[in-house]
Amino acid sequence: MNVFRTFARNISGKVNKVGIIGVPFEKGQKKYGVSVAPAALRTAGLVEQLREIEGLDVKDYGDVEVPAQGEPVDVDNMKHLSLVSACNRNLSEKVATVLRDGRIAITIGGDHSIGVGTVDGHYAVNEDMILIWVDAHADINTNKTSGSGSVHGMPVALLVKELADYWPYLPTMDWQVPKLSIKSLGYVGLRSVDAYERLAIQKHNVPCFTMEDIEEYGIGRSINHILRVLDPSANKPIHVSFDIDSLDALEAPSTGTPVRGGLTLREAVKLMEIIHATGRLRAFDLVEINPALGNDSDRKKTIEAGLCVLKAALGFSRKGTIPQGLTDLPIQTNNGNK
Question: Of all residues in the chain, what percent carry a pLDDT higher than 70?
Answer without folding.
Answer: 91
